[in-house]
Amino acid sequence: MARINGARLMSDLRELAGIGAFQTGVDRVAFSEPDIAARRWLVEKLRHAGLDAAMDRVGNVLGRDPAAAKTVLIGSHTDTVPKGGWLDGALGVGYALEIARSALEANERHAVGIDVISFQDEEGTFMPFLGSRSFFADVDDKEIAVAKSKDGAALTAALQTVASAPPPHRFDGQRQVCYLEAHIEQGPRMEAAGQRIGVVSALVGIRRYRILSHGAANHAGTTPMAMRRDAGSALIELAAAINGEFRRLADPDTVWNIGNMIFRPGAANVVPSACEMLLEFRDIKAEVLDRFEERFMALAAIANRGGVGIEVESTARIPPTAMADNLSAAIAASAVAHGETPVHLPSGAGHDAMVVARFMPAAMMFIPSIGGISHNVAENTSDADIVFGCDVLADAVAQVRREVV
Amino acid sequence: MARINGARLMSDLRELAGIGAFQTGVDRVAFSEPDIAARRWLVEKLRHAGLDAAMDRVGNVLGRDPAAAKTVLIGSHTDTVPKGGWLDGALGVGYALEIARSALEANERHAVGIDVISFQDEEGTFMPFLGSRSFFADVDDKEIAVAKSKDGAALTAALQTVASAPPPHRFDGQRQVCYLEAHIEQGPRMEAAGQRIGVVSALVGIRRYRILSHGAANHAGTTPMAMRRDAGSALIELAAAINGEFRRLADPDTVWNIGNMIFRPGAANVVPSACEMLLEFRDIKAEVLDRFEERFMALAAIANRGGVGIEVESTARIPPTAMADNLSAAIAASAVAHGETPVHLPSGAGHDAMVVARFMPAAMMFIPSIGGISHNVAENTSDADIVFGCDVLADAVAQVRREVV
């Protein structure tokens, strides 16, 4: 079995958490001072471990195994959401650092080495997956020119702060043969079930809609029920029908959400003249998404038949991302070898692996998150689970290195 | 038959509409300059007609028949909502002026005369029904001391502007024997059915509630459906159940409204942690309101059984107000004498008659409103319907004066 140093891993993760520390979490949004400091910290750690490492002018940190012509790429991201948790992204980078370092220390002969990466702005402060998209030359200058944060700060201005760094690191298809990323689950399932290793079956596809209804504002005391065009109740009844039908149509892991409704004018004694609703659903199978969409559109068409007009606007359409079977099998086999039965589960959230998988085989491993808390300073995982996860991933990487050629 | 002067009535109503004119309507909120100007205009008109008239220091205008010991009180209010219509309130005051004036001109011998009133602030700019409540000595100084407009203006400051006027007019139970008020319908029923005279069967009772749900905000991609505490869908399903059950339980004239829902945090990808909903229902029968409330509470209790907590807060509870049968019969008989079959219908909105009826017999007559528009500059009724309504009310008043002893 591969030997990693659990104490060193924990020490590194805690050191990294100290850069941009905020309460019990970290605030290290992309291109902020602590974000760049964390990336420079990682470069130093990688160099110290014996890798050729640098931060490029996008903020991506790549550490290359100096002795290898082919490598397994491991990593995640070190940027966070505002007031985020200490493990999101950082965990996967810490694992990659420790696994690459241990492998170099072991000094075994291998045809396939390990490269380490920390992608920039996975969290989308300026542009979601900027770093992984840049790595695959999948962003054009026009997109970068117009990208802005929620606060209106321009990505171009942020990029100026690292303009003196080397040109962007790019994916080398002759060198990096596959990608592995570890992450906390960001959901409650594994902890609730007492599971320590999750093999991500796929990253879910997402479809998101804004639904608008148009009726007429009337006095709610003097307008008989039969003479109303109630834009509020039209969407209330559509929403209830969606919940009922989706329950019937769902696969075990399908999720959906009615995240918002806004009523206008919104007074107790006025029949709502207009209403807006946000709906999304996620699943790992395109056919489930198709089934949901078809049923939803049919329900909206029925709702549109009364005196209230219904409009449906599609606001996001992200296809599911499959993971590479042989890589997932390596993670599962490693878990079993460590005495743990792995759970196969979808990732309901997006990750850099979603971008990477379009260009090379990729897989993801989850460890549990206490209470399923994520994107919050209360996010945490026990030290034992963190170290155990690194052990499992290290052996999975070792197996992949042996099998590739 | 009593003779009223339709041309003079229309001329007076148009003159009154010129005071505070706004587009095709009027903006004459209580205690504004145009409101007080309209009240002074009315005092002059009443005096010119031969009544003893004055505005008191609340803003109420009372015109007293100088020759009578007993009177029928007729009137409504001349204040409006902001950017309101030209007939709401003004119509009933115009009718009262014309009917009292015509009666004095006819110079017939009657034991029972006519008093005319325009109540202050029916629309509740500072305090709903301030004028009618003051007339019956039903407001205490503490209420007045704290009353404020939506803009934060104090009622006490508004009252200062008329502080030099005489002490409040008060109801004299030996003199005013009953009350009649005419109003536009403020709803679409009469116009849609081609009906010209409505006899108000009762003013509806109103029950109003704020419903709060408390769940947990979770990532809508990573939290399985079974592990959610979705405060939004809990109220969506309660609201849909309310609509379904209320349809089944409603009398023909019962109305209800879900006027607002607010979701928190209100993002597409976050399971709603909290939701708020406004519900009201109205009917002329207390037993219908009781039936609705009982069913609503049962549905809320069912919704409360899941992981989401439901709280119900009662925010308004106004009992139905019955009208005096003999007065309503006089209006109906007058309509029939004029060749019109009257329609009996509830008033879904509040009126000064609601306050008055607690202290003396009262009745209300409706005329149609084009398109049911109310509290809007587009509010209108044909001249023919306005004059016809005054003719009908004049004869109803004549009959009541004959029948009273």
Defining key terms:
homodimer, 405 residues, alpha+beta, nine-stranded mixed β-sheet, four-stranded antiparallel β-sheet, 17 strands, 25% strand, elongated
What's the quick description here?
The structure is a homodimer of 405-residue chains. Chain A is α+β, with helices and mostly antiparallel strands. Chain A is 36% helix and 25% strand.
Topology:
Two copies of one chain form a homodimer.
Chain A: H1 6-17, E1 21-22, E2 25-26, H2 33-49, E3 52-55, E4 61-64, E5 70-77, H3 90-106, E6 112-119, H4 130-135, H5 141-146, H6 155-160, E7 176-184, H7 189-193, E8 198-203, E9 205-214, E10 218-219, H8 231-249, E11 255-264, E12 270-271, E13 274-283, H9 286-303, E14 309-318, E15 321-322, H10 325-337, E16 343-347, H11 352-356, E17 362-367, H12 383-403
Parallel strand pairs in A: 5-6, 5-7, 7-17, 8-16
Antiparallel strand pairs in A: 1-2, 3-4, 4-6, 8-15, 8-17, 9-13, 9-14, 10-12, 11-13
Helix pairs in contact in A: 1-3, 1-12, 2-3, 3-12, 8-9, 10-12
Walk me through this protein's architecture:
- Two copies of one chain form a homodimer.
- Chain A is built from twelve helices and 17 strands.
- In chain A, strands 3, 4, 5, 6, 7, 8, 15, 16 and 17 form a nine-stranded mixed β-sheet that branches. A four-stranded antiparallel β-sheet of chain A has the order 11-13-9-14, covered by helices on one side. The first copy, chain A, has a two-stranded antiparallel sheet with strand order 1-2.
- Chain A has helices at 6-17, 33-49, 90-106, 130-135, 141-146, 155-160, 189-193, 231-249, 286-303, 325-337, 352-356, 383-403; strands at 21-22, 25-26, 52-55, 61-64, 70-77, 112-119, 176-184, 198-203, 205-214, 218-219, 255-264, 270-271, 274-283, 309-318, 321-322, 343-347, 362-367.
- The two termini of chain A are 20 Å apart.
- At the A-B interface, β10, α8, β11, β12 and β13 of A face β10, α8, β11, β12 and β13 of B.
